Every structure is written in C-alpha cells, then in structure tokens.
Amino acid sequence: EFSVSGLDVKKVVDFNIPFMELPDGTFDTALLALEDMIKRLRDLSNQTKWITVCAQGYGGKSDLYHMAEIRILNDSIESDLSIHELLSNFDMKAASSLEVATFLDKLFREDLGILPFPGEGDDYAVGAEW
C-alpha cells in the first residue's frame, strides 16, 4: 500500500493467474525473468502468501522433463529439496534483485539440475504462481 497525492492506493494481485512465465515473449532469458519477478515481488511488500517458482528443463530424453520448485515469501526462500544449507547461507534481503535472480538461476542450474533442452539455446522454462 502506498500514498499518491493523499490518496491511498493498494496494489492488487490476481492470485488466479501466473505471476511470471518464461517463455512468453517478454524476456530473452530466465535470469531476466527472475530479476523482474524479484523486483515486482519486492514492490508487493508484506505478502502473506508464498509464491512457488518452478523451473523446467531437459530430463535426459527429448520427451522427458526435469522440474524443480522453490517458494518465496518476502525475503525468505524455501524448498522441500535438500538445499536448505544453500538457502540459509544466502541473505536475500541484503541482495539486489539481480543478485537474487543470479542466485536462483545458479540454484536451478547447478544444484537442482535444470538443464536446457538440446538445440534450444542455453535456457530453461520458469514460472511463478501463488
């Protein structure tokens, strides 16, 4: 919530539609989509709902997918996967949006095994939903 010329204006979030999707033509890379997502989440301060970020990539065969999820609420990142030590050592609050996006991109690629599909460049699909 913020004030504009004495008027109270609330930012409204539609929890029924995806918060972010790639590829959707808006961003060229997962890193840029993640950075924009973090900026927009920070504009929605004091959220009470976790947002789930899911990355999807190559699963070893052309018809197999590998997926990994993390959750974000304000300046906290959680996962059901065995990466709690990595998450606890990262200070999301002190990091810039680009630093958070870079951390998430590295986390998905290196620690959670999200790989691009052969012949489709060096990226993966990613989305965020409430």
Q: What does this entry show, briefly?
A:
The protein is an alpha+beta fold.
Question: What attributes characterize this protein structure?
Answer:
3 helices; 130 residues; globular; 7 strands; disordered N terminus; two-stranded antiparallel ribbon; five-stranded antiparallel beta sheet; 26% helix; alpha+beta
Q: What can you tell me about this protein's structure?
A:
The structure is a single chain. By secondary structure, the chain is an alpha+beta fold. Helices cover 26% and strands 26% of the residues. The protein has helices at 30-43, 84-88, 97-111, and strands at residues 2-4, 7-9, 20-22, 51-58, 65-73, 76-78, 125-129. The longest helix is centred in the last third of the chain and has 15 residues, at 97-111. It starts with a strand and ends with a strand.
Total strands: 7
Distance from N terminus to C terminus (CA atoms, Å) equals 19 Å
Spatial ordering of strands, largest sheet: 3-7-4-5-6
Summing up helix and strand content along with how strands pair, one would put the structural category as: alpha+beta
Low-confidence runs of at least 5 consecutive residues:
1-7
Taking all residues together, what is the mean pLDDT?
Answer: 88
In DSSP terms, counting alpha (H) and pi (I) runs of 4 or more, how many helices?
3
Shape: globular
Biggest pleated-sheet summary: 5 strands, antiparallel
Q: Percent of residues in beta strands?
A: 25-35%
Helix and strand arrangement:
Elements: E1 2-4, E2 7-9, E3 20-22, H1 30-43, E4 51-58, E5 65-73, E6 76-78, H2 84-88, H3 97-111, E7 125-129
Antiparallel strand pairs: 1-2, 3-7, 4-5, 4-7, 5-6
Helix pairs in contact: 1-3
